[in-house]
């Protein structure tokens, strides 16, 4: 049992109406499935000056919650610290854009978020990594935002790196013209990508494609978004 001073991270709270922006996200099971969650994650974050994260149970037990987790970090307002039991990764290094996106998700008030990140550049020559973001509750020690965990990307539904980029911008609410400007391509190229995306996601509309992409974590985020103020 956790000590009275422990603060749970990423607990699935049925009282909260949603863990994402899309209206189709109705259950916690749907939200946690893309990252391989089989049960709720609980970590103790200790505000002892070092602000290190320590597992409530064994480290091995915590790591198993994200299938194939390879690296992780605790995110603070002024930096990061290692997540015990997991390795290090350049994607979690200081000034990494992955951490910027994770911070933005936490600051939006999301308890849980998952997205993809391209390895080796925008066109993902080395494939994609899944990033799972777990926010701290309001009672967490001052300055502690939550945890960021990396794991294999999983099933991408045959989507190409460019189509994943388009999906990320679609979820952000971009029009075809805005997506074209952001990716420096012609609008007709964007339309062709979207046609392929709709087929691969078995979606009849852009809205449904965006909902399914966010629910399944099938998007590469852009920060800052060209379509959000």
Automatic annotation (TrEMBL):
Pfam families: GerE. Keywords: DNA-binding, Transcription, Transcription regulation. The keyword DNA-binding applies. Transmembrane segments: none annotated. GO terms for molecular function: DNA binding. It comes from the Bacteria. PANTHER family: DNA-BINDING TRANSCRIPTIONAL ACTIVATOR DEVR_DOSR. This is Regulatory protein, luxR family. It comes from Klenkia brasiliensis.
């Amino acid at each position: 049992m956790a000590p009275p001073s422990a603060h749970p991270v990423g607990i699935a709270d049925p009282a909260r109406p949603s863990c994402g922006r899309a209206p189709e996200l109705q259950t916690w099971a749907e939200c946690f499935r893309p990252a391989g969650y089989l049960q709720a994650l609980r970590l103790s974050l200790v505000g002892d000056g070092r602000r290190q994260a320590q597992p409530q149970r064994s480290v091995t037990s915590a790591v198993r919650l994200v299938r194939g987790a390879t690296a992780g970090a605790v995110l603070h307002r002024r930096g990061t610290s290692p997540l015990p039991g997991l390795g290090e990764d350049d994607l979690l290094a200081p000034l990494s854009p992955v951490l910027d996106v994770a911070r933005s998700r936490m600051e939006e008030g999301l308890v849980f978020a998952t997205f993809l990140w391209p390895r080796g550049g925008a066109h993902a020559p080395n494939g994609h990594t899944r990033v799972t973001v777990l926010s701290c509750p309001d009672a967490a020690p001052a300055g502690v935002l939550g945890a960021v965990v990396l794991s294999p990307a999983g099933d991408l539904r045959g989507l190409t790196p460019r189509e994943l980029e388009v999906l990320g911008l679609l979820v952000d609410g971009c029009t075809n013209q805005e997506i074209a400007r952001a990716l420096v391509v012609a609008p007709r190229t964007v339309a062709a990508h979207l046609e392929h995306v709709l087929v691969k996601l078995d979606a009849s509309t852009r809205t449904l494609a965006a909902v399914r992409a966010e629910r399944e974590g099938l998007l590469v985020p852009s920060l800052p978004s060209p379509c959000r103020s």
